Amino acid sequence: MDLGRQEVGDRDLRRRLTRRPASAGSGGPPGGRIGDLATTSAPRAGSPERELRIRLALGAIVALAGFGALWRLSRPDWKVDESLDGAFAWEAVRHGTWSLEDGHPVFVRWFLGAGQLAFGQDRLGIRIAPAIASIAAVVLLYVVGRALAGWRTGLLAAAMWAVLPRALVLGHDVVGPLRGDRYGYLEPFMVVVLLGATLTGWRWVQRAAWPQALATGVLVGLAAAFKPTAVVVLLPIVATAAIRHRSLRTVGPQATAIAGLAVATFVVTYLPLGTDAPSHIGELFRYQLDHARTGHVLVVDGQATTSQPRWAHLLYQWRGMGPLACLGLLVGFAGAVADHRRPATRYVAAIWATLLGFHVLSAVALPHYYLLWAPFSVLLAAMGLVHLLAPVRTPTVRALGAAGVALLAAAGIVGLVDVATVDHGDYGRLVAELDRRGIEPTAVRYQGEAVDRYFPNAPAGQIGFSDPNAPFDLLVLDPRDVPMLPAGAAGAERARAAAAGLAEHRIGRLEVWFREQPADGP
Fold first, then answer.
1. pLDDT along the chain (522 residues), means of 10
2. N or C: which end of the chain has fewer CB within 10 A?
3. Element (H, E) at 27
4. SS3 for 121-166, per residue?
5. Among 153, 12, 138, CA closest to 65
6. Which helix (H) or strand (E) holds 512?
7. E strands present in 373-497
8. Residue 11 · residue 36 · CB < 8 Å
9. Torsions phi, psi of 222, nearest 5?
């Protein structure tokens, strides 16, 4: 039996069960549809009037998403990853040098490079493409939500992703304020393609048609070209199709084609490297496997570590999105559990659980990883909240759904206020303070977040990665990164700074050494 027809039949049955005769004296509408809170005077489903209202609502949501993604985009401090990836992207698109750094995929360099060609080699140029991708994710959440569960689900999911906070938090330190997809990371691009694969994968699950299978393979391959971990979504998509058709043999040939096309698409993105592509691909997977096996050096609450608890990912999401948002999502998850018989709900839940589960099993827990499954958290919660708010539910159940929406709305307001009031970080304040004092450093020594980007006209050397004897007239030590230095290294740099006549200052959390007045002479 076709799932689409089954769901239509279920809706028709519920519509008949909830219809009341006009003479019942209840004051309620003589007809209705599941989840429809409107009266009989409202435009009927599918009417031009209703579609216009939906489009206006979606337009308002996209406008909010644009504000959240673009307002003061270049204010927050540089991140090391976006600085490096932006530099590699510039060399690739501007000078044709694609072979720099082979531990990460190269496909993202097209997008980060295009942003810099259009807006310059600064934070705006590097962040504009991820910001646009985050807006595209809002639109796609509406499209996917509507296709799987109706327009209410689509609008609610899009609205949540447009306004909810999603800061990057490591331990108790906010290392990336506001929203992680406002930075030059890989996740915003991967999310967009994964949402597209979710839609085409669902259509393939329903129809087992070759066009949907091929489209899914291409999209999964493109997602993997941003981050190879995206390939794990093949498991829930193929498993859902096998359950739907009750036979892996039925969908096996198409599933094989999907996997093969995903691999081929991934390889095609390496064509700019020419004959160097095979070695780069090999190094990419070697690096990723080593990364997963040995962990990643992080400073968590002042302590350098290479491993964290498996549940650190969930803690990052709790602290990054905030308790209000996470509690609202949990209410939505409860509704999704209650609605578990709907195939589309199980499908989205399987994709979400696969992405989350894969990372929980990994030894590496970075604060921006939760951005991969957070959109699916939002989509799944939206499906559950719409289920709870349906008129056929009891008043208690509907009140629970309303409470979930209220929590998410409050979190969204907090997120929008945070965006509206965002200002320079400590590194930006450092630059402003030096400008105020008329100090122009001629050589910089540092251990911190992409300090070299703030002083493009002065040679900058990171401690441990540059000539230890090179002179400097500005020393920047970020306490979030200092614990990664060998014992005594920071003390030795402080002694060198004092011997050179530099004085210690505190700007925010930063320990900064420079002369009180610019030195005389050249």
1. 44 43 36 35 68 97 98 96 96 95 92 98 97 98 98 98 96 92 96 98 96 98 95 97 88 96 98 95 89 84 87 94 98 96 96 95 90 97 98 97 98 97 96 95 96 95 93 97 95 97 97 80 45
2. C
3. none
4. CCHHHHHHHHHHHHHHHHHHHHHHHHHHHCHHHHHHHHHHHHHCCE
5. 138
6. strand 510-514
7. 444-447, 460-462, 474-477
8. no
9. -65, -40
Residue 56 has a CB neighbour count (10 Å cut-off) of 10
Q: Are 488 and 309 in contact (CB under 8 A)?
A: no
279 phi and psi angles, rounded to 5 deg: -65, -35
| CA pair distance 232, 197, nearest whole angstrom | 12
What is 444-465 written as a DSSP string? Answer: EEEESSSGGGG-TTS-EEETTS
Instruction: Determine contact, residues 232/355, Cβ cutoff 8 Å.
Output: yes
* pLDDT value at residue 27: 37
In terms of Cβ atoms closer than 10 Å to its own Cβ (0-12, 13-18, 19+), residue 419 is: buried
Token readout for 244 is 């739907």
- Paired tokens of 397: 């159940």
- Dist CA 101 CA 62 (whole Å): 36
C-alpha span between 381 and 384 (Å, rounded) = 5
pLDDT value of position 34: 37
Query: What's the CA gap between 81 and 449, in Å, rounded?
Result: 9
Inter-residue contact 230 to 224 (CB < 8 Å):
yes
CB atoms within 10 A of CB 452: 17
Q: 390: which residues sit within 8 A by CB, 6+ positions away?
A: 34, 35, 398
Size of the chain in residues: 522
